[in-house]
Amino acid sequence: MADSRTLPQPPPGTPTVLVIGGGASGNAVTILLRRAGIVVDLIEAKPDWNATTGSGITLQGNALRVLRELGVWKQVEARGYAFGSLGVTAPDGTVMFVAEDIQTGGEDLPATLGMQRPQLQQLLIDTVLASGADVRLGTTAGSLEQDADGVSVRFSDGSEGRYDLVIGADGLHSATRAEIGITDKPEPTGMAIWRIAAPRPESVTRTDLAYGGPAYIAGYCPTSENTIYAYLVEGCRDRASIDPATYADEMRRLAQSYGGVWPEITEHITDPKKVNYTRFDHLLVEDSWHRGRVVLIGDAAHCCPPTLAQGAAMSLEDALVLAELLTSRRDWDGELLQAYHDRRIPRVRTVVAASMQIGQWQLDGVRDADMPGLVGRTMNLLKERP
Ligand SMILES: Cc1cc2nc3c(=O)[nH]c(=O)nc-3n(C[C@H](O)[C@H](O)[C@H](O)COP(=O)(O)OP(=O)(O)OC[C@H]3O[C@@H](n4cnc5c(N)ncnc54)[C@H](O)[C@@H]3O)c2cc1C
């Protein structure tokens, strides 16, 4: 990791930031702040920074727009799989209709791109390391003590630091959120997802979603020339009641009711360790996302079921907006941090509500819902810069 002793020392008075959490939002904000010459320390709880769960990720244009700002678009484009439409199929694989995806990132970026999660994370890790941020893995913040001028932090390894600002990018179960007294907590939506990476059948060139089978949704997304990730969404069960050794059997049991390319995918659902089971949660902190000089971004402040594939996109946009405000002026007061919340909340609220609504229609068995209308309205809104 970067050793601050070998880096040129910043001029006295250079602002200092601690970023807690090295996921998409923490990495993105680190890269943007370092580019402006701000001193950034990043701590990540996991000793292995790229131990990402989940095999693939669907990135819409508005996420790609932020990745371009981060300087990694060319690599994302080379490693991922871009496409511009969404197919809806019957459980037997018959294509019912194909909808053009909206280019939320502008016409010079694809509407959608699938990517292997570890590849995206590695690109961001490499960019953080190249930025000169001081990174410490296997480290958390034990305590945060604020006064009018800054935040004193005691780390889990016993060391201490003092910062002008602390950014809590520590995800859905954010310890930072609790530490600053924000009591909102994630709630289950009633759904859960089985996911696996598999070789790409030649005919898979976009996301197809099947409704009407034993799962609420059976879908797949190409993540590179050679790979896809496939998923099945069902009613949430108590995770403790499912033996991880049976994960492949569980996913195969659901998958084998589907036709089209599913039999080919199902052949690869064999190793329980490669199958991921995750509950869908939602969270929206409506009130301010900061207390004093500690501010939340990403899943720590909001999270939605991935029915619109917008969680990471919203997290990356948070990083962009916060970095834009922090680099626009030196006095980082409550007014500035409130401006960040005010700029983000209407957009995030709309995305969380739409994502929840899509899931709820499925849970309630509503067949005639105007899903295309809701998706279209939401995606059109996301074309605007955050
Ligand atoms: C099943 C599923 C599918 C999804 N699919 C998509 C999709 O296709 N497209 C999309 O845009 N979004 C998707 N999302 C949402 C997306 O994964 C998240 O919104 C995104 O990862 C949030 O990024 P983040 O950096 O805020 O949080 P995280 O990715 O959770 O990162 C938080 C980081 O903080 C670290 N950490 C935690 N606690 C501490 C601590 N106390 N101290 C230090 N570090 C800590 C964690 O180890 C982690 O590295 C999906 C989510 C789920 C659950």
UniProtKB/TrEMBL annotation:
In Pfam terms, one family for this protein is FAD_binding_3
Q: Which GO terms describe its molecular function?
A: FAD binding; monooxygenase activity
Every copy of the FAD-binding domain together lies at 16-354
Superkingdom of this entry's organism?
A: Bacteria
| SUPFAM superfamilies tied to this protein | FAD/NAD(P)-binding domain (SSF51905)
Keyword terms of this UniProt record = Monooxygenase, Oxidoreductase
Concerning NCBIfam families, the annotation shows:
PRK06847.1
Protein name in the entry:
FAD-binding domain-containing protein
Q: Which organism is it from?
A: Streptomyces lacrimifluminis
